[in-house]
Amino acid sequence: MGTLIRTGVLKNYFKVAQHLGLEPQPLLRKLRLSSEMLADPDHWIPGSGAVTLLEESARITQCPTFGLRMADLWQLSDLGVVSVLLTHQRTLRDAVGTLIQFRHLMNELLVIRIEEVGKKVIVREDVVADDVGPSIQSVELALGTLSRMCSTLLGTSWYPLSVNFTHDAPSDLRLHRRIFGGKLEFASSFNGLVCRAADLEIPNPIADPVMARHAQRLLEGLPGANEPSVVLEVRKAIYLMLPIGRATIEQVAQGLGINVRTLQRQLESAGEVFSDMVNGVRRDLVIHYMDNGSLSLGRIAESLGYSAYGSFFRWFTAQFGMTPTRWRDTKPADRGRRGN
């Protein structure tokens, strides 16, 4: 069935499309979607179709902030019952943890990881879709809604140290500055927010543990679109852990709460090999990074988990039949013919 997304995530699509003068019906038909599907917040659609819808809409309207405009209209109540649970969490850390726990009820493409770095915390967030490369619009929609959730829960106390994007900056940053507030870092090695660890521990003055328990029990009884897929969860983990050099089977198994042998057996049953999955994610990411002219080849190597450029050089040449430098000097059509 592939990864799915609940159409409630796309609630503000038609508002933004109308504002930008886009007639979405031809595009919806092309993607085998419909207005009726998107109008029902509890309908599930293929994640790749949702990602493509946002990217094509941004291209047609020539609006590089299409996804972020959707996030600008987002409200916590758009999450339905999940919003009740989030509202009554003790701290922002608990709220983010809750979002991670129940993200499968909203968006199977979404992957979030909290990383402690001294007195700072990195909340890494990405969108991982089947057969679709990194999506600027989907990432900005996800980061925009995450930031708005944080500001809704903390109010003026929320001020991230930085908001990071792997893609290049658009020419106009006014909307980004208004939504995110903190320092903007584009052409970064990851997508996510950096904040003070202390900010995640600020007490939520309206938290009600009774309401939180009630909402959690209700959510735990709701079905997701699919049964959890170990292949999908491993792929998501690899996406997040490659840039920090932790995309090993030991680290991924630990993150999933199982031992290495169990993970290997589950992948084998699904016809997958961990090393092949790492290589596949590297191929997906490197094409995205190489098309980003702001990233040096050394920075790209680091973002793919290579501590030595020579190792990256050899891997890239073996994968694509040409050196990284030649790739950047070659027309896209010729690259496709040379790749493995």
TrEMBL record:
Name this protein carries in UniProt: AraC family transcriptional regulator
InterPro entries, alphabetized: AraC-type_N (IPR032687), Homeodomain-like_sf (IPR009057), HTH_AraC (IPR018060)
UniProt organism field: Cupriavidus necator (strain ATCC 17699 / DSM 428 / KCTC 22496 / NCIMB 10442 / H16 / Stanier 337)
Pfam families: Arabinose_bd, HTH_18
GTP-binding keyword on record: no
Domain of life: Bacteria
HTH araC/xylS-type domain location: 232-330
Single Gene Ontology MF annotation: transcription cis-regulatory region binding
Record-linked PROSITE patterns: HTH_ARAC_FAMILY_2 (PS01124)
GO cellular component terms, semicolon-separated: cytosol
